[in-house]
Design brief:
Layout lengths: L4 H37 L2 H20 L5 H23 L4
Helix pairs in contact: 1-2, 1-3, 2-3
Length: 95
């Protein structure tokens, strides 16, 4: 264990930041999972609402530096593709 005051403070700050980041990343993964589940169930309205919320959460986590901005963009793009595929499938006439 550290004995220097600045080191002790640094350890406290790291623990606090780690806890905050872990919570935010978990929240982000939950929102992503909600979009995937909504698209899997075929419910377009729920999928679009989940996508809107997930996009917002991804943007916030990227802006705060918890994930890389390109990672947020890639995940957002993939989720948009899922919802768009569901929308085009729902719009096409059944054969």
């Amino acid at each position: 264990m550290a004995n220097i005051k600045s080191s002790l403070k640094s350890i406290r700050q790291s623990a606090k930041d780690n806890s905050r980041n872990r919570s935010a990343k978990s929240r982000m993964r939950t929102f992503i999972k909600n979009v995937i589940q909504a698209t899997a169930s075929g419910d377009l309205a729920v999928a679009q609402e989940s996508l809107r919320m997930a996009t917002s959460v991804l943007a916030v986590t990227a802006r705060k530096g918890m994930i890389h901005p390109n990672t947020a963009a890639r995940q957002t793009r993939r989720l948009h593709a899922r919802v768009k595929a569901l929308a085009t499938h729902a719009a096409s006439p059944s054969s």
